[in-house]
Amino acid sequence: MNIFEMAQIPLNKAIETMELDAGAAAIIAVPERTLEVSIPVKMDDGTIKVFTGYRSQHSTILGPAKGGVRYHQNVSMDEVKTLAFWMTCKCAVAGLPYGGGKGGIIVDPAKLSKAELERLTRGYIDKIAPIIGEKRDIPAPDMNTNAQIMGWMMDEYSKLNGQYEPGFITGKAISVGGSLGRTAATGRGVVVAALEALKLKGIQPHEATAAVQGFGNVGSWTAKLFCDAGVKVIALSDVYGAIFKEDGFDCYDVDAYVKKTGSVIGYPGSKAISNAELLAMEVTVLAPCAIELQLTMENAAAVQASIICEGANGPTTPEADDILEAKGVMVIPDILANGGGVTVSYFEWVQNLYRYFWPEEEVIEKQNALMRKAFKAVYEKAKQYNVTLRVAAYMVALGSLEEAMKIRGMV
């Protein structure tokens, strides 16, 4: 089973539970368009290297496709299609006027110079330009891409179109149309969702503990905002390993340490632990914010957290979901929990279209309101049908898509 097929399992449960129109189910099951491109890049030594890139547009039923671009040596068409599918559902759950898209390039960016990375980025935009745009498909940062790369993309696309095009892409620097609050947005969404779950369980934030897997943008902001909320973060990890501190971390200090050293490993006063120990830590909330397929049939039974809040895309396999459900663990699914990033990307897009920008407090207030509204809709659907939050989230998304398809005359 590949990752795309795996993603269909909770979707199919939702389709069956809500008795979704067969035509609507058939349309949602496959992406509208996938594109594979070859990108020749002149390397610093004068040689030419050809890279492979992808863009998948899963759906434009509710609006233009929306989704990030990742640079990684393991990028594949199946991965990009799956992530685009999740974006369709994520946007529908959040109530955003978007469909789902995703892109990627097979590359280890650490092996390229800054100049090579820029040439690769511009070449990618040159190749996918015919199918993207502020009203067609709006890219954003993802794994190993950032505001600088978005800036190059925007500049290249603006050159191709002969005019300034800030609304074509989100996740940009503030100076070129980025939104205040965007950097922390995905982590903020994870924390808002987790706090809503704690509220349901009658647990005050200062009574809760958390373990955060991953200390990239999502994980570091999740950890810092947990600290701000009063939740005690006792375990953290990155690609090099994990650390534990019984009386809790000052996650802002850990972040400063990582900026100096490149890793959480060796943080003063911490104890080194394994990734497996972090996932099995006795905490109130476990937030997997690294990569997909972390909670599996092999390790799910060891989980001791009462709430799992998915900051990463697809960190839990269907088999692990079944085990966690049987254990009574509340799993807040990725398409709900990590929707904060695309929510503030939507705000950035709106601000770019109007050329009118909001203060950070307004962005945060609007994000929190939309996240809480989405959490409430999913939780109520789960109660109504006696299903998991993951299946309920897909039901909310499918309901929005089905209604739009019917009104548009597609089914």
Provide the descriptors you would attach to this structure in a database record.
14 helices, globular, 411 residues, seven-stranded mixed β-sheet, alpha/beta, five-stranded mixed β-sheet
The structure class reads alpha/beta
Output the radius of gyration: 21 Å
Anisotropy-based shape: globular
Low-confidence stretches: none
The biggest beta sheet, please?
A: 7 strands, mixed
Distance between the termini: 30 Å
Count of DSSP H/I helices: 14
Q: Beta fraction of the residues?
A: 15-25%
Fraction of helical residues: 40-55%
Mean pLDDT: 93
Q: Mind explaining what this structure looks like?
A:
The protein has 411 residues and is α/β, with parallel strands linked by helices. It has a seven-stranded mixed sheet, with helices on both faces. It contains 14 helices and twelve strands. Helices cover 46% and strands 17% of the residues. The model has no long low-confidence stretch (mean pLDDT 93). It has helices spanning 3-18, 22-28, 77-94, 114-128, 147-161, 185-200, 217-229, 251-261, 275-279, 318-327, 334-337, 340-354, 360-385, 389-408; strands at 33-42, 48-57, 65-72, 99-106, 137-141, 209-213, 232-238, 241-244, 271-273, 285-288, 307-309, 330-332.
Task: List the SSEs and their pairings.
Layout: H1 3-18, H2 22-28, E1 33-42, E2 48-57, E3 65-72, H3 77-94, E4 99-106, H4 114-128, E5 137-141, H5 147-161, H6 185-200, E6 209-213, H7 217-229, E7 232-238, E8 241-244, H8 251-261, E9 271-273, H9 275-279, E10 285-288, E11 307-309, H10 318-327, E12 330-332, H11 334-337, H12 340-354, H13 360-385, H14 389-408
Parallel strand pairs: 3-4, 3-5, 6-7, 6-10, 10-11, 11-12
Antiparallel strand pairs: 1-2, 2-4, 7-8, 8-9
Helix pairs in contact: 1-3, 1-14, 3-14, 4-5, 6-7, 6-12, 6-13, 12-13, 13-14
